[in-house]
Write a structure and sequence with these properties.
Elements: H1 2-99, H2 103-130, H3 142-175, H4 193-198, H5 206-211
Length: 212
């Protein structure tokens, strides 16, 4: 009877030990499973962070590309504007250089003006003498007096024209150093140098003169 009880107690102890062992193994397995889940979750979070970083890096690269494209466009526009401005400046300089008489041309015109003024001074002196009133006491015939009066009228007209030309030549001589000297006062285009050499007092080109 005692032996039976001892065996029953031993079996009970063995059963308890087995149960404790099973429970221990179950707990160990549960912990291992929990750790595995934690590791999986941690891996998932890390992967999500990597994905977020990759997406952020791609978005940053796109922004940089857009910024580079914008800057390149702005630089292109600035260079294009500079080229256009330079082209316009060169064209303006070319137009100005075309419309400006050379130093040698102005020297020739200045000499021509001075020569014309000297000739006009002599002509004006002669015409002023020729336009003096005819004294009644001069013993000339009737026909000769009529001729003298007609000649005086012609001389007076010539004197007015000579003085008008003298004034224009003096004005041209004063303005010959100006950069726009030799340009038409109406259309602002260059007067042909041959015309200026023939008539230095000219203020208009032949085209505008014909339109008057």
């Amino acid at each position: 009877m005692i032996e039976v009880m001892i065996e029953a107690m031993i079996e009970e102890v063995v059963m308890v030990e087995v149960l404790e062992m099973v429970l221990s193994e179950a707990e160990t397995a549960e912990k291992a499973k929990e750790e595995e889940v934690i590791q999986v979750q941690a891996l998932t979070v890390e992967e999500e962070l990597q994905v977020i970083q990759i997406v952020a890096a791609e978005e940053e690269e796109v922004k940089l590309q857009i910024l580079r494209a914008h800057l390149a466009h702005q630089v292109h526009l600035a260079l294009q504007a500079k080229v256009e401005t330079t082209t316009l400046s060169l064209q303006s300089l070319q137009r100005i250089s075309i419309r400006m008489l050379s130093i040698s041309q102005k020297a020739l015109l200045e000499d021509k003006i001075k020569q014309n003024l000297e000739t006009l001074t002599d002509d004006i002196s002669y015409l002023e003498e020729a336009t003096k009133p005819i004294a009644p006491e001069n013993a000339i015939g009737r026909i000769s007096r009529i001729d003298a009066i007609n000649n005086k009228s012609v001389a007076e007209q010539s004197l007015r024209q000579a003085k008008d030309k003298q004034g224009k030549l003096l004005e041209a001589l004063d303005n010959i150093t100006n950069s726009d000297f030799g340009n038409c006062q109406k259309c602002k285009e260059e007067i042909a140098f041959e015309r200026l050499l023939f008539m230095p007092e000219s203020r208009r080109c032949m085209k505008c003169l014909k339109q008057c």
